[in-house]
Design brief:
single chain, mainly alpha, transferase, metal-binding, metal ion binding, PTS_IIA_lac/cel
Length: about 110
Amino acid sequence: MFELDDIQEDTVNELEEVVMGLIINAGQARSLAYTALKKAKQGDFDNAKILMEQSHSALNEAHKVQTQLIESDMGEGRIKVSLVLVHAQDHLMNAMLARELITELIELHEKLER
């Protein structure tokens, strides 16, 4: 990863790579959560739990990048806001929301199974 504290014009491509990593990790977190929900619907709660843990790890990686971007910007507009960055933020927030809701749905499925 590159130093986010000193973003210059020539590092825009590197920033885009970081942002793409955020999109990939957030997308992976969301995908794993939905796969976990599918497993829970089938009554496979052990694998659902494993998938949700993997989803959590992917989301943590995405969140670390987001935190670094926010900290390096320091509210001063140092990081150029692009459509890709906005898209990455959307992916991250959707993944976070999906995980929260899917966690609740898995718990409901587990209670109904008993």
